[in-house]
Structures are given as C-alpha cells and as structure tokens.
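Record type: monomer structure entry
Structure origin: computed from sequence
Chain ID: A
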Amino acid sequence: MTAPADAAAAAVALGPPATLASSQPFVGCGSDYQLSPKSQWLFHQYSTFSVRGQTPSERGGDVGAVRKTSSHPGLLHGSLVVAACQWAWVTGSLDHVKVPFLHHKAAAYEFVRQQVLDETQVLSETTTFAIATLALAEGAVGDLDASSKHLRGLQELALRRRGYKVAGPNLPQQMLDMAADRLRKGKVSVLQEVIGATSYQPTIIALLFTSLWDLANLPPKEAPRYGWWQANETLSDRLWQGYTKNLDWEISRDFDPDRNISMMLNSDPKSSRASYIATFFYLLIAMNDTHVDCVLTVWLLEQLIEDVEIKEQDMISGAFSRHLWFWSVLLGAAVADVAAPSSPDEARQVAVWKTLYAGKIRLASGILRLKTWEDARRALAEIAWAEDSTAGEAGLRGLWEKAMSVKVYGSG
C-alpha cells in the first residue's frame, strides 16, 4: 500500500483529458462522452488510485473496475459519485469534489429514471449498479431517507428478477444476521469496549446500526444525537444508546435535505465511512443473491480491510479483541467469496482479495491456536453464532478449511 503522505501528494496530480468511448450513448450523447475538467480530475483519481479507508493506493494492474465502469456513461456516473465520497475521506472534505459529485449524482438519477421506465432495462445489472451507487453516496453524506428508498427499490427489483421467489441468504448476510441476533440480545460485551474507544472502527458502528434497524425500519424515526434520543424511544434506540453512550457520533448532523447541501456525514471521514459501510451491509440484504457485482464487492472489501489491518498489531499484542478480529476477517472472506467476476481482470482481482483474507485467517487462527473447525467455530461464537441453527456453518467452515489448507513457504 502506498504510504499515506506520498499517496496524498500524488493524488493532487491532474490526469490527461478523458474521452470515454461508449457503445451505448447516454441521454443524447454521441459515440464519445467528454468529461468536464473537474470530472477529468476525479476520473483520473478514480482510475489511478483505489481508496482503502482514508488512504489512496495506486491501482497498478488493478484496472478491472475502471474498465467496466468507464465502458458505459450510466455506470461511469454512479462510479464517480462514489469516487467523490472516497476522495472526501482522503482530503477530509467534500468541497474539492462537490461540483463533479453533484453533477454525476444528478446524471445518475436521470439515468436510473430512464432505466426504470424502460421495461427492457429495468431489471438489468446496469440499473441495479446505478441504484446501488446512489444508495451508497446518499448513505455517505448522511441522507438516510434517500438511501433507504434506493435500498428498498433494489430489494423490489431483486424480487422481480426472481419472480418474487424468496432466495436463501448469502454467506455475508447470514453472518450479519447472526451478529444482529447477538447484538439485539446484548450478548456481545466486547463491542461496548470497542465502540466506546476513540479509535473505533467504522465497520463495527455499521454492524451495530444494521443489527438494530432492519431494512423495513429505515430510516430510524428520529435520528440519534450523540447516541441519545430526545423522546419516543424504542428498544433499538435504547440499545444504540447503551452501545454508543461514550461515543460522540451522530447520524445526520450536516445534511440539510431542504437545501440539498451535501457534506460528509458529521464532516468526519470515519462517520461517513461508517454510514457507507452500513449501506453496503443493507445492500447485501436487499439484493439477497448468491453473487454480487464484482465492482461493488471490491468497494466494500477496500473499506473492510482497512479496519482489519489498522487493528492487526493490536490484535497480535492482545490490545484488541482477537475473537472480534477473527470474526471480522471471516466476514471479509465471505464478502470476497460472493463476488461475481465478469471478466479475467475482475477474476484476478477477486483472487488477490481471497488470498489476502486467507492469510489473515491463518494469522488469527495461529494466534488463537485454532487447530480444528470446532476450535474455529467456538472462537466465532464469542462474537456471533446462531446457537439454534447451522445456517452459514458450511460456508464458513469451507472458507476456514480452505485457508488453513494452504501450505505457507517456510512454515514447515
């Protein structure tokens, strides 16, 4: 990974003008789509760097996402909206990218409007991708009402695509369900310590949020301020208060829907990332599919791995919960496992992520001295496990055993 200081310096470079060939003209565009200068800069950043957490990293040969999303203006608009949010985390403000953010967001909305009015396109993967990017962007800026509407729209499209047949949950969804069950019962005491720390992980806040409010109850009726409601508390409200009472974190302090002022949630990259990751978790639930678009999957993995790696040394020393770190690693591995690559570039990219997470699984298993699957299952149960069900066990066992079967050079 590129060092943060070096990457931040490199990130200000302006790339060459970007003319994107498109075989599917968008809203009257001809065969070529010319970006404005500010959008050129944002596209250059997006095509040159990926963003893990708040740190840009040079893509190198990792260009699958760029090739796919620049092949169609409809995909490009959504990708640049998300890219603007990611660069706001790097720079600490949305101001630098606000113009392209608002432009491409409006264009993405128009693209989605046209797609859903066309019966031949409404169920297409392109439509799903565009709506997903809007949900993520609205989540990142704190407009939970808008992101919730997009998520419910995705859920409806997924049901229509399957002929309204209910599909079984994918593995990440099963893990989230298990965590939700434990959190609602107040059985994961280690999370109170982790959430109350000033160095909290956005992934953990996202996990807590999606556990307490299911998709049908979004957005919460009254946004919590600094972890507290003023009136009309529900059980979920009180649980949120209990977990976050020592944390200065608020859901939507800086979004003004009446004036459409877009800012990072709480003007804080970590808060924005937490809401973005939570939206991703809801996406997995809404789409309820065995496989998820590879570009979307990688965007989520880039956030999850940052929280894993930033706590790795603390986990090794025992300053951070080893069981929680192990569970987080399995969640990332499960997300990588549902990625659906549609090209050789994407397949190579997914393989890299699977290898990375397999190494993290071996690291945690070695430190926790997990020799068998039963050992690993007990370790996972310290955080989240369905005590009366075997749902998800086969998939998790497969991931763990595959990772542990890899012989590492020099390990004997």
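Annotation 1: The chain has two domains: 1-122, 168-412.
Annotation 2: The longest helix spans residues 344-368.
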